[in-house]
Amino acid sequence: MKKIVPLFVLFVAVLALAGCERRCRCYEHDGNVVYFSEDEVRATDGTCVNMREQAGQQFYYSLCEWEY
């Protein structure tokens, strides 16, 4: 029984790390939600927070944050 608990904990940790993919969640001004992958964020400017403004000073979204 003592060997099962550490193996179970290790299994859960590996599963949590392997299945986790973060994406950038942006809220439009009308309440709709748009998601961007990490690759899409990297292709623009590299940060999720800065996805709010994509063309100069115009803000397309009211809030952008990472979702795990």
Taken in chain order, the helices and strands follow as: HEEHEEE
Radius of gyration, rounded?
18 Å
Our count of helices gives: 2
Provide the structure class: alpha+beta
Average pLDDT works out at 79
> What's the end-to-end separation, in Å?
33 Å
Structural account:
- It is a single chain.
- The protein is elongated, with a radius of gyration of 18 Å.
- Helices cover 32% and strands 34% of the residues.
- The longest helix has 15 residues, at 4-18.
- By secondary structure, it is of the alpha+beta class.
- 9% of the residues are buried.
Layout of helices and strands:
Layout lengths: L3 H15 L4 E6 L4 E5 H7 L8 E3 L2 E2 L1 E7 L1
Antiparallel strand pairs: 1-2, 1-5, 3-4
Main traits of this protein?
68 residues; 32% helix; alpha+beta; 2 helices; three-stranded antiparallel β-sheet; 5 strands
Give a quick precis of the structure.
The chain has 68 residues and is an alpha+beta fold. The chain is built from two helices and five strands, in the order αββαβββ. The model has no long low-confidence stretch (mean pLDDT 79).
